[in-house]
SDR family oxidoreductase
Amino acid sequence: MLAGRVVVVTGSGRGLGRAYARAVAAAGAAVVVNDVDADAAAVVVAEIAAAGGRAVPVVAPVGPTATADALVAAAVEHFGRLDAMVTNAGLLRDRTIGKMSDEDFDLVLETHLRGTFTCARAALARFREQGGGGRLVLIGSPAGQRASFGQTNYSAAKAGIVGMTRTLAAEAARHGVTVNALVPVALTRMVATIPAFAEAVAAVEAGEPVPSRLREAGVGTAEDVAPLLVYLLSGAAAGVTGQALGIGGDRITVWTHPTVAAEVSREGGWTAESIAEVFPEQLAPHLQPYTPDVPAEATR
């Protein structure tokens, strides 16, 4: 589906990024593999080459503009062009807000949110230089869509990425570029920090299959997520843009955009007292859940 395409995948030395890089290479694309770990990046490049694909490494932390420019330059230097940017790089510094330092917050936002911004900007500039067309897939997370205890920094970054997706889709449409957010759910080392999934992550890393109760609830492996990425990068998804699409286990989801759930008007405006009068009956029934809706049996 991706023959002749050139794709950059940030943070692709391990986990979901590795699965993304291997999948797009298997679909025919040349890949720029990025990671801060040179050995991990080299392993993925070697795996792709061994399978008959083409890949080159760029070892650098995502966030700075210089890294984004280097990733695009590597694609052009080695493969002649750039067709897609996948902004996957990220890290965690999980703590409740009272224990979260400025450094914990800033590092996560620098990598996830600023890194997505700088890489998207560099890719869009190259797409325009090439005459238009291209794909941006920005990696989100359920933590940006629902509450995720102990992840104020990560949730803020991932929510920002989905917001960025919608705006970039509007800005890039005139250049024939699609922009979508991919919201993956997979049993990776990052998920292992969640106690309910730690045992399942260990089992998957040991080569065991994902339990059916988890797959049915929308939780699977990194390899289960990759096909949606390949689809979004392909010509078949030319009409799909501005969306947040989730995948995990046996399930694909379409996330709604924020929308008004209820409204009440009062001529002349409102006082606190008048709001208190109408809120319980006219607005309270429409308040939205904010915690994850994963079935309890999926975590046992």
